[in-house]
Amino acid sequence: MARNCRTAHGDACLIDSRATWVIMRLLPAGRASAPLAGPGPATGQAAHRNPMKPSHPLASLIANNREWSEKRRTADPEFFTRLTRLQAPEYLWIGCADSRVPANEIVDLAPGELFVHRNVANVVVHTDLNCLSVLQYAVDVLKVKHVMVVGHYGCGGVAAALNNLKLGLINNWLRHVQDVSQKHATLLGKVRQGAPRVDRLCELNVIEQVVNVCQTTVMESAWERGQDITVHGWIYGLNNGLVRDLDIDVADPGIIESARDRAVNAVFAQDTMQA
User: Fold this and answer.
1) Contacts by residues 256-259 (CB-CB < 8 Å, ≥ 24 positions apart)
2) Using CA atoms, how far apart are residues 248 and 12, in angstroms rounded to an integer?
3) β-pairing, 91-96 with 114-119?
């Protein structure tokens, strides 16, 4: 059941009581009473309004977009029509913002098949309303069945946290990764410095963020009502394009601690085997 309303600033909005989400549309001055726009033309003829000047620094990206859209429609004329009808992904990917880690491509899923949240060092913080809102929408509204926390080897954020680099504001965010490092300081201290130690911390960070996801009120509520959903921990290799399962899969709040301990032991067992 949807109804029109106005915000405190007079902006038009639409409230959908089924999902309790407020979808805002900011309108130009003098048009506050204009109706909300629909999804737009199905064919993309509006894309040619106000064409970008060739000298614009982003002109090449717009050109790439036109070419990509044309290729998609040529290969599959119904592709964009299907996208406008439904979003029903089974997976939520919580990954790093690193531009070398394209979520959909890594697992070869089309748009609409993977819900994605990304930030520096794939961190899940219980006060981060951005991440928590994505998680809640994915779990409560989209009804995803799997949440994957996906880190990657050679993560610059993790390396900065480990080496205590002074980068400015972001150091406050990376403090959460440093907490992981300090928690496992004894075991990390036994790993050779440099890339090997950074990689171990990348793995540990994924494991601890999986635990953080499991301990959110969103997941606790989902499990309490019997929702079928599992949280996983993966790590991606930039050097070979392969995902590695870190052997932490939580579908029940009662196994969070044991799952974490098993995964942490497995991380350091590999160093023992290589020694």
Assistant:
1) 256/211, 256/214, 256/215, 259/210
2) 45
3) parallel
**How far is residue 207's CA from residue 257's CA, in Å, rounded to a whole number?**
11
Task: In whole angstroms, give the CA distance from residue 267 to residue 202.
Answer: 10
Residue 72 CA to residue 173 CA, distance in Å, equals 38
**DSSP output for 109-168:** --TTSEEEEEETT----TT-HHHHHHHHIIIIIS--SEEEEEEETT-HHHHHHHTT---S
| Number of residues in the chain | 275
- Residues 6 or more apart from 80 whose CB is under 8 A from it? 42, 44, 69, 72, 73
Q: What are phi and psi of 229, to 5 degrees?
A: -150, 140
Half-sphere exposure of 251 (CA within 13 A, CB side): 10
C-alpha 65: how far from chain center: 23
pLDDT in tens, 103-133: 999 999 999 999 999 999 999 999 999 999 9
Check: CB of residue 118 under 8 Å from CB of residue 205: no
Q: What is the pLDDT of residues 13-51, one digit of tens each?
A: 444 444 433 333 333 444 333 343 444 454 555 545 666
Question: Can you say how many angstroms the Cα of residue 11 is from the centroid of all Cα atoms in its chain?
Answer: 29
Q: What is the Rg, in whole angstroms, of the alpha carbon atoms belonging to the chain? A: 22
What amino acid positions are annotated as catalytic residues? 96, 98, 100, 152, 155
Other C-beta atoms closer than 10 Å to the C-beta of 73 total 15
Q: Which domains does the chain have, with CATH numbers?
A: 90-275 (3.40.1050.10)
pTM, 2 dp: 0.80
AA letter at 154: G
